[in-house]
Amino acid sequence: MPRRVLVLAASAALVAVGAAGAATIRGTLGPDRLVGTAAPDVIFGRAGADTLEGRGAADLLDGGPGRDLLVGGPGDDRLAAAYDGARDTVRCGAGRDLAVADLEDAVGASCETVSRRLSRDPFTGEDGQHQTEVEPSSFAVGSTLVTAFQAGRMVDGGASGIGFATSKDAGAHWRSGFLPSLTTESRPAGDSPSASDPVVAYDAQHGTWLIGTVAESEIRVRTLVSRSRDGVTWSAPVVAAGDPSEDDDKEWIACDNGSLSPFRGHCYLSYLDVRSSTIRTRLSTNGGLTWSTPTVSVPDSDLGFENGAQPVVQPDGTLVIVFDLAAGGSHYADPAANQIQAVRSTDGGRTFSPPITVARVLAEDVRGIRAPTLPGAAADAGGTIYVVWGDCRFRQDCSDDDIVVSHSRDGLAWTPAERVPLVDQGSDQQAFVAGLGVDPNATGRLAVVAYTQPESCSSETCHGIDAVFASSRNGGRAWTAARRLDAEPMAISSLPDTGLGAMLGDYVAMSYVRGKPIPVFALALDPLGERFREAIYASPRIG
After folding, report:
1. Which of 50, 76, 230, 463 has its CA 20 to 30 A from that of 92?
2. Using alpha carbons only, what angle is made at residue 460 by residues 456 and 466, rounded to the nearest 5 degrees?
3. Residue 336, CA atoms < 13 Å, CB-side half-sphere
4. Is the pLDDT of residue 20 over 50?
5. Torsion of the alpha carbons at 198, 200, 205 and 206, rounded to the nearest 10
6. 71: which DSSP letter?
7. Mean pLDDT across the chain, nearest whole number?
8. Which string of DSSP letters, residue by residue, matches 400-416?
């Protein structure tokens, strides 16, 4: 039976109850009670304080603006209550349900998966595409998780500011804000028109949280580091790298927190210097307050353009930097000719091995989306380093990308890439922009978050982009079934432009908190007029 559409256009309050067949039910601008059928329904509350009730199979309930009550039925329902400015109540039913909600919303314990919006872009400058937040990084220690992200993404690069969100109870509650003294729109104001590439790290030796950013202007690019003792109150940034001869991009920070490491308390800042086409590393031994002169970790290569450096520290203090070698001078020039490579240091970052090839990258461009094949890397308690990236080698004719994983015990010898089953291998779904989390207190426990999109979704207004999650307890030999993290697929037209495609971020985040993986990612609703509705979300509950 075809799905029926029931549109209730009057502004007065009303009650609508679907009949036997699957239905799309749309409420009015007033307070409504909308009840689904026994089949899978789509119910939109629109404006007003609405009650939405699913009755049967897998339903989608979208409350819309207003203070709503969403009640799931016995099926696997998706309940959307986020980004509406009102305190909603969400009650899930007997199925395996997904709720997407704001922090102030009341979400019942029966909801197996819960994604919470952490922040909202507050900036209004004319250069930003506002109500957008993209590209989260995260790090966790104990029960505390800190994430940082761009807010107010600009077309020409960077953002109006850098936001943060911090939970001290494993994702149950959050405090959010924006870094001070960073950009001209920060409060207090800094002197950079824009900032980009946020990364979070923690120095256990000095009890200090760090957020690194690349601050950009027309005449110079600097890498700045903001510091905090509690993950909530942040200092004005210090300049970690800003030589006039350099042009920094894609910085990343890793601190040596190993209790037995001879280099405990060393924090490594690795980044691309575009002018010399080298990856450089600077060292801090005082909690990020000051940084050394740079060491060339990866020299200029005749094979291509090196970027996306990811320093990883093993428990014995060995430093491994994983990076992307992009053929043709750009991540986008020839995605099928790139490589993932690594270098290794055993003396605290003073010297490095020659580059080692982790794998050749076989990748397809993701239609309409900015999605470079940058690696994500992390180490477990036993020192095994895991790396993920986008790759099409497991598809017939390399038609679509999957997320793949490789690992190494020493940073020198790497296993062949293996597929992470985030999408069906025989489908036209492609996976891109992966975030890797590895439990630092266990061995072989890892999780991946990424975005997916079907090739058949060819229009910019086609709603086909999802955020998905999977985890492994045995080093990637077996994975859980992929779990969806968004209630409603996103459209490319709902994302900010960058000139290189619409943006969710060049990377996405995952951290283990007390043995529980928590993904942090961007979701976008359809714009309201000229205003976007893209924000950073976290999923502290996945079932």
Report:
1. 463
2. 65
3. 8
4. no
5. 60
6. E
7. 92
8. S-EEEEEEESSSSS-PP
Q: Domain residue spans in the chain?
A: 4-111, 133-541
Structure tokens at 76: 């696997």
Residues 6 or more apart from 356 whose CB is under 8 A from it?
341, 342, 343, 344, 411, 412, 414
292 in Cβ contact with 238 (< 8 Å):
no
Distance CA 110, CA 359 (A): 43
SS3 35: strand
Q: Which tokens go with 83?
A: 């980004």
133-541, CATH topology level: Neuraminidase (2.120.10)
In 3D space, the residue among 225, 214, 331, 351 whose CA is nearest the CA of residue 273 turns out to be: 214
Contact assessment for residue 226 and residue 234, using Cβ atoms and an 8 Å cutoff: yes
Measured CA to CA in angstroms, residue 38 lies from 18, 24, 139 at distances of 9, 13, 43
CA distance 259 to 317: 10
Q: What's the rounded Cα separation, in Å, for the pair 526 and 224?
A: 34
Structure tokens at 348: 């605290």
The alpha-carbon radius of gyration of the chain (Å, integer) is 23
Q: Which residue type occupies 284?
A: S
pTM, full prediction = 0.94
Look-up: residue for tokens 């037995």?
A: 260
- Looking at the predicted structure, is the pLDDT value of residue 8 above 60? no
**Tokens representing 537?**
């979300």
Strands (E), 274-313: 278-284, 295-298, 305-313
**Ramachandran area for residue 384 (φ above 0: left; ψ -120 to 50: alpha; else beta):** beta
- State the pLDDT at residue 34: 84
Selected residue with higher pLDDT from 55 and 183: 183
